[in-house]
Design brief:
Enolase-like, domain 1, five-stranded antiparallel β-sheet, four-stranded antiparallel β-sheet, 12 strands
Length: 343
Amino acid sequence: MMRLPLFEFRAPQTVAEAVRILDGEGPQTMPLAGGTDLLPNMKRRQQVPKTLMSLNRIGELHQAKINDSGSQLGACMTLSEIAANPGLRNGLTALAQAASFVATPQIRNMATLGGNLCLDTRCNYYNQNYEWRKAIGFCLKKDGDICWVAPGSSKCMAVSSTDTAPVLMALGARVRLVSHSTEREVPLTELYQNDGIHYMKRRPNELLTKVIVDSLHEWKSTYWKLRRRGSFDFPVLSVAAAAKISRNGVVEDARIVVGSVACLPLVATEASNFLKGRPLNQDSIAQAAALAARIAKPLDNTDFDMTWRKRVTAGFVTYALRELRGDDMRGERLLLTRHSSSL
């Protein structure tokens, strides 16, 4: 049985109190929301903070404000609340979809939006128990000096597996980061970096308090996810797409983001720009899908064969763009769910 290491516990009731704790106690203090990622990591001794600081008593982190001018979502909203919120439709549909695809209902009832955005990167050589990792001499991400995925690399290749980050990047979202002395808003596209260890630019003394999305009037969005088990698993490939389409069917603006193929979600800028001013017909969708697939460079650090995951990227982008066009994709989604375990 894997047990949690000893830790001290704090339970602030305001954001101001929480950031004072982070500022005073340093990097050995970690925020705790749902704990669905952090606590298993602590049991495997991948993360061993001296102090856990619960965020559950901070009321403002659980609040949502959704109206025609935009949305503000508290970092401690659970994924179940996100998935069920009737205000997260049309332009925000992809966020509700992504939240509903995470793990199981029990985990979604605990896991939070902020926690999913800050999700630790994953790797077949890292997400093992302590004894397994010790037997191979550990890895570059924790306690070792070799990245077993790319032994010649000086950089950790652990992959980003968050479901909500690709979606919110496609929706142009920003996050609010608060410390004891400063407060800043950062576009989500600038929050992550391509490093499996230092994968976020959030400072240790900063607390992610809110997700902000400007008005997406006349936008549509969708999210597609590949995983081993259709009802429960981390993504090994994900595609988030959002578009503003005119009444005559021409794309006025578009954003495509590919997730789970690198240390951070990848913005398919060339593919997104290609769609602008074009209708979503068979040719434009095929060309945009091919452009988006070029940026996907999956490695052998997660499930399924990496060359196959590279090939199916274009297919998933095609699914997403067809759905934005208005095609009924329920059959494809059902088949994907049923047959994921046999892929």
